[in-house]
Write a structure and sequence with these properties.
The complex is a heterodimer of chains A (413) and B (403). Chain A has 413 residues and is α+β, with helices and mostly antiparallel strands. Chain A is 54% helix and 21% strand. Chain A has two domains: 197 residues, no CATH class; 205 residues, no CATH class. Chain B folds into two domains: 199 residues, no CATH class; 192 residues, no CATH class. The two termini of chain B are 26 Å apart. The chains are: A alpha+beta (413), B alpha+beta (403).
Chain lengths: 413, 403
């Protein structure tokens, strides 16, 4: 009965109801859209970074993170790889040898990261292979070839075909040097990568650092789309087995531990995003409260008449609450639908910002694609919708109490 | 007419108060978000310049592309003296490449020769340490290492490292230094290569004879960027003067991206606030349909009704935005003073070579009030005049009949 009355009351003031619903739903849609957009950017950043670096989950020597040195290796990499590739959620595995050294040319010397990779695996997984601006990426037969970043190439005055010497310490601490020829030059837009990364074949890096034929410093694992990267770590640890982890002194780390700067940046950015979104929700709620209060004040006469006719005060309050709940339910549903639909479109088709950023975008030292894709999470949508709905109903308690206190005399006047 | 509008507003106190609350609240939120957004952009710029880059740098011509040890400033001392006289804080630096080694680890390093007192006067560098302390005022063979360089050398505070360099006279410079501090994350270049020495130690190691490659000027925002650049150019003739935006193009671009996304954000806020206020004004005016009908029956022309309502709406908006702007300003100033500590959620962050201050401060300027206040005025008047005009066109009888 009350529900029906509330429904009718709302439609007696069609214009007001529609305006209120519109302001709830547009506000909510904006929040949903921005949240999805931000999550999409984060997901892309993380995806690019883990593909270029050491995967969603990295298997390495337990002490490597504290003091990265090439003597802290993962031995028996191929048998580990077979075990890991048996896990359903694994899309690909990559073997890496990452060490530090100095790259030298006739023009100067720069301290660099030397990373040994499997060219055929990287070509399929890493965005780096698609960011070549000169020459070509490594191929499996490329003995003593290296790809370097554009900033490094500029500083050392190198072009494809030129020679560079890489000096480093091998696993026993001896100073070693090796001559490489530049195969190609990549440009990601990120200083950390373009200025300091040298990629060579895995076999060449083993030779340089004096490592065994089955040694790597990292075994990176990429998650299959649709599987949860957060759960992959445990699945891998289980697949490798405690005995093997103990025997080889392994650590199985999520990307957040391997690239803590990126994880910290995303957390920082979320803080500011959530602050703005919270302010936006507060703004929307304040106008909703205003509408509800006004709707009661305007109808004091009508409510007074109802009271005089014997309607209990409790029922009057409930009536106002139910009206608010209906408004909120329609507004939230419409808002989520609108926000979700727009985000969904941007998730599928992407939003091309290249006209806004002709020079490309970088965030946290990683180059971003100028076409951004949103990422809609049903879970987050539901939480925000429920939050706004609950907040509206709680705010409606004010006008509901107000309605319960009208005097019957008011109605008679 | 204004007085009449004012009286009209107070005839229905509750409605006016309610409408004012909404408008005022929306204004306050807008002012606050504007200040938070400006604070974010300015904070990023501050972070980029205050650690060690500075707002303007002076080099020998060609240094930026070819950082040769021999390409130093021709006459750095008069420039430094002139900067000091002009009251512009500045720090002179010399750079040289070499090797650092400890036990069986070695790594390439960029040695910086700095004047600890000048660095402390102009920059946050001496305080930007993860562990240990900065160089003491007198040279005593101490070194402060970049974070990743220290990790590659497995060096900690108290460790001794050997420096091997090619000195300015062609000989091999060779010296033992004690690590006194490790820098916090200051971006990739500094993290993996910085080995900071006292300028006297640097001169001895490199036989540099007081060479200066860079003078970094930093007023911490006290002088506007364009004016600062012009003043430094006037002081340092024959040298290459560059602003931080030219030196850190990536950070500058990133600020552009940030600026653009905040601009989108603030339009969404204006839209949401505008909608809310429109809603409120529409309701407040439609409620008075009956009253307008009576006015019309008494022979008031429709234009006059609309004008009256517009004046009322403007009065209401002026008072409400005044209160709202006051509240928003107070909030913004509080956030400027104390800031929001993001460290609890995010820890410390470095991004594209800039170490971030974990305290997010608002930045308030009177100019930030203009957009929110004017938008609110415009929205209030339009949202009041439109319904008033449509009601005023009705026939008096119809209008009176409506409740």
């Amino acid at each position: 009965m009350i529900a029906r009355m509330a429904w009718r009351n709302l439609w007696r003031r069609k214009r007001r109801t529609l305006i209120t619903v519109a302001s709830i739903s547009l506000g909510l849609a904006c929040v949903v859209f921005f949240l999805s957009l931000a999550e999409g950017v984060y997901a892309q950043l993380v995806d690019d970074a883990v593909r270029m670096l050491a995967g969603h989950v990295t298997v390495e020597h337990e002490s490597y993170r504290d003091a990265p040195a090439v003597d802290l290796v993962v031995a028996d990499a191929s048998s580990l790889r077979r075990r890991i590739e048996g896990v359903e959620a694994v899309a690909a595995t990559k073997l890496l040898i990452a060490g530090q050294g100095i790259a030298r040319s006739g023009r100067g010397a720069v301290g660099v990261s030397i990373v040994g990779v499997e060219p055929q695996v990287e070509a399929k997984t890493s965005p780096l292979a698609r960011k070549m601006i000169a020459g070509r990426y490594l191929e499996s037969g490329d003995e003593s070839l290296a790809v370097i970043g554009s900033a490094l190439a500029e500083r050392l005055g190198l072009t494809p075909g030129n020679k560079l010497v890489i000096a480093s310490n091998d696993r026993d601490g001896n100073l070693v040097e090796r001559l490489f020829r530049v195969s190609g030059i990549f440009k990601t837009g990120a200083e950390e990568i373009d200025g300091y990364l040298v990629e060579v074949r895995l076999a060449d890096s083993r030779g340089l650092f004096g490592l065994g034929a089955d040694d790597v410093t990292q075994l990176g694992v990429l998650v299959r789309p649709g599987y949860d990267p957060a759960r992959l770590r445990e699945q891998l640890a289980a697949a490798i087995g405690d005995a093997e982890i103990g025997r080889l002194n392994l650590a199985v780390r999520p990307w957040q531990e391997v690239i803590p700067e990126l994880a910290a940046f995303i957390r920082l950015d979320r803080v500011s995003d959530h602050t703005f979104q919270a302010l936006l929700v507060v703004l929307v709620l304040s106008t909703i409260l205003n509408t509800l209060v006004m709707a009661v004040l305007e109808r004091e006469r009508e409510l007074g008449v109802m009271l005089a006719l014997g309607t209990s005060r409790g029922r009057l309050a409930t009536l106002v609450l139910v009206e608010a709940a209906i408004l909120a339910a329609i507004g939230c549903t419409a808002g989520l639908a609108l926000g979700g639909a727009v985000s969904g479109l941007v998730q599928v088709y992407g939003w091309d910002l290249s006209s806004l950023y002709p020079n490309g975008m970088t965030l946290s030292g990683l180059a971003l694609s100028t076409t951004i894709h949103a990422r809609v999470s049903a879970h987050k949508l539901f939480v925000i919708g429920a939050l706004v709905f609950a907040a509206t109903v709680i705010l409606a308690l004010f006008p509901a109490f107000r309605a319960a206190r009208v005097s019957a005399l008011e109605g008679a006047r | 007419m204004i007085r009449m509008g004012w009286r009209n507003l107070w005839r229905n106190r509750r409605r006016t108060a309610l409408t004012m609350t909404t408008v005022g609240f929306a204004t306050a939120i807008l002012v606050l978000t504007q200040a938070l957004m400006h604070g974010m952009v300015e904070g990023t710029a501050r972070n980029a310049t205050d650690t060690f880059v500075g707002e303007v740098q002076v080099h020998a011509p060609g240094w930026v592309t070819d950082r040769s040890f021999y390409n130093s400033l021709a006459a750095p001392r008069p420039v430094l003296a002139a900067l000091a006289e002009a009251g512009l804080p500045a720090a002179p630096r010399a750079y040289g490449f070499g090797l650092t080694a400890r036990a069986n680890k070695s790594a390439g390093a960029m040695f910086w020769g700095v004047d600890p007192a000048a660095e402390a006067g102009a920059f946050d560098l001496p305080a930007s340490l993860e562990r240990g302390s900065f160089l003491t005022a007198a040279a005593s063979r101490e070194v402060v290492l970049g974070r990743k360089l220290a990790r590659s050398l497995e060096a900690d505070v108290g460790s001794e490292v050997i420096a091997v360099v090619e000195a300015g006279d062609g000989s091999i410079g060779n010296e033992l230094f004690t690590v006194v501090g490790i820098l916090q994350g200051l971006g990739e270049t500094a993290d993996r290569s910085a080995a900071i020495l006292h300028s006297d130690d640097f001169n001895a190691l490199f036989v540099a004879g007081g060479r200066i490659h860079e003078i970094a000027v930093n007023t911490r925002g006290a002088v506007a960027p364009d004016r600062l650049e012009a003043r430094v150019v006037a002081l340092a003739r024959d040298a290459d003067v560059r602003t931080w935006r030219e030196l850190l193009p990536m950070v500058s671009d990133m600020l552009g991206v940030l600026d653009a996304s905040l601009w989108i954000f603030s339009s969404v806020f204006l839209l949401a606030a505008g909608l809310g206020v429109t809603n409120t004004m529409l309701m407040a005016v439609y409620e008075r349909t009956h009253e307008f009908g009576v006015l019309k029956a008494l022979g008031t022309p429709p234009l006059r009704i609309a004008a009256d309502v517009a004046v009322e709406a403007l009065l209401l908006a002026v008072v409400a935005t005044g209160i709202g702007a006051g509240a928003g300003t107070a909030g913004a100033l509080a956030l400027q003073r104390w800031g929001i500590d993001t460290a609890a959620w995010a820890g410390s962050t470095s991004l594209a070579g800039v170490a971030f201050d974990p305290i997010w401060r608002a930045s308030f300027s009177l100019g930030a009030l203009t957009t929110p206040v004017l938008t609110m005025w415009l929205v209030c008047v339009l949202a009041a005049v439109y319904p008033a005009a449509s009601v005023a066109r009705l026939r008096a009888v119809e209008a009176i009949g409506r409740t």
